[in-house]
UniProtKB/TrEMBL annotation:
Cellular compartment(s): Membrane
Transmembrane domains' residue ranges: 294-318, 338-357
GO CC list: membrane
Pfam families named among the record's database cross-references: Glyco_transf_21
GO biological processes: glucosylceramide biosynthetic process
Taxonomic lineage from the root: Bacteria, Pseudomonadati, Pseudomonadota, Alphaproteobacteria, Hyphomicrobiales
Organism: Methylovirgula ligni
Protein name in UniProt: Ceramide glucosyltransferase
């Protein structure tokens, strides 16, 4: 009976920690009823968007760069290869929006093994303003995008980020990706931010140029395989904090395959393990699988059907995730609780894979974490 009570206590602690993370995310992530107007003294801002290939909703996400309600900003699109199919799309958008200063830079700088970072270097160096946003090409920017990033900046801030909010799913596997992105990854990132241990997220990053320049400029981000991990270490080394926006910006997903979702999750997990191994170590406890298994075993020791114990734990945890999604007006459907379960069955496999495998492919580029990569010359 002592073992049963010990397991029940462990299960309770894990459930409470998950519910606390839901509560922190609900408190800190709130949808805006109306767009945030720009401040009268709004500073100039440069938006650098690295582009590679044609994504779902490509014209909508890239086109949103030109629809921002902000008085002084420029957009710099960066493409590594001259034969990239996204170039005609960018040229069309730039020509259709002459009122917004926009530049297309073709060609990258091979400073690291990270092709996205290589693609950003020339854009960063060409940026005219003191405030620079690095934003992925698949972000759907709301009209108040810039001012919401700036509003999160505090005197102790060194970087403001937004993780992706999965939206516009067009099939089942896109909804599975939403189960990963929204009420799991975004939730834990808001929870970390809420207790003062925020991490950078490379989807949207607002820099004040002098902070990164003091660390060696954008080339300093080549110190890690992932630019957001390097950004986290740069900001912490400066004694500053990473803050998050009031609510994540949408990433329209469209159609996904199970392979798409799987490859992204194992890639991100391997990079987290490589760059922050001590923080990655307890990730196995962050999903619902561990408390559900412990709860099932404890229930059996108490003479209750193990399936009932696991079902009770999952019902409590998924109720918290549902509350988070609904409070933020994120995508939610009757399928999502079942996809939460599939996600939580996948997470332990993703976790152990991350400890065992070092290689992955990102947009056709083979990458490894076996040793520090040397830039090509």
């Amino acid at each position: 009976m002592t073992l049963a009570w010990a397991l029940a206590l462990i299960c309770l602690v894990l459930v409470v920690l998950n519910l606390i993370s839901d509560g922190i995310a609900i408190r800190n992530s709130k949808p805006r009823a109306t767009p945030l107007p720009p401040a009268p003294d709004s500073p100039g801002v440069s938006i650098v968007r690295p582009c590679c290939g044609i994504d779902n909703f490509c014209e909508e996400t890239l086109g949103s760069s030109f629809k921002l309600d902000y008085p002084s900003y420029e957009v710099i699109f960066c493409v590594a290869r001259s034969n990239d199919p996204v170039i005609p799309v960018l040229q069309k958008l730039i020509a259709a929006n002459p009122a917004v200063p926009a530049t297309l830079i073709i060609g990258d700088e091979r400073i690291s093994a990270n092709p996205k970072l290589n693609n950003c270097v020339r854009g960063w160096e060409a940026a005219r303003h003191e405030w620079v946003i690095l934003a992925d090409s698949n972000v759907l920017m709301p009209r108040d995008y810039i001012q919401r990033l700036l509003a999160a900046w505090q005197p102790t801030t060194g970087l403001v980020c937004s993780m992706p909010q999965g939206s516009h799913p067009q099939n089942l596997w896109a909804e599975l990706e939403i189960a990963f992105l929204n009420t799991y990854q975004a939730r834990w990132q808001y929870a970390a931010d809420g207790v003062g241990t925020g991490f950078a997220q490379g989807k949207n990053m607002l820099w004040r140029r002098d902070i990164l320049d003091d660390a060696g400029g954008i080339r300093a981000l080549a110190a890690e395989i992932a630019e957001d991990a390097a950004s986290t270490k740069v900001v912490r080394a400066a004694g500053l904090e990473i803050n998050l926006v009031d609510s994540p910006f949408p990433q329209p997903l469209g159609k996904r395959t199970l392979g798409d979702v799987w490859s992204r999750q194992i890639r991100w997990a391997r990079m987290r393990r490589k760059t922050f191994p001590l923080h990655f170590f307890p990730e196995l406890l962050s999903g619902s699988a561990t408390p559900a298994i412990i709860g099932a075993y404890a229930a059996g020791l108490f003479g209750v059907t193990p399936l009932a114990g696991a079902a009770l734990v999952l019902a409590i945890l998924y109720s918290g995730e549902t509350a988070l999604a609904l409070s933020n007006r994120w995508h939610f459907s009757w399928r999502l609780p079942f996809l939460f379960l599939l996600r939580d069955l996948m997470l332990p496999v993703v976790y152990f894979d991350a400890w065992l495998v070092n290689d992955f492919v990102w947009r056709g580029t083979e990458m490894t974490m076996r040793e520090k990569e040397r830039p090509s010359t």
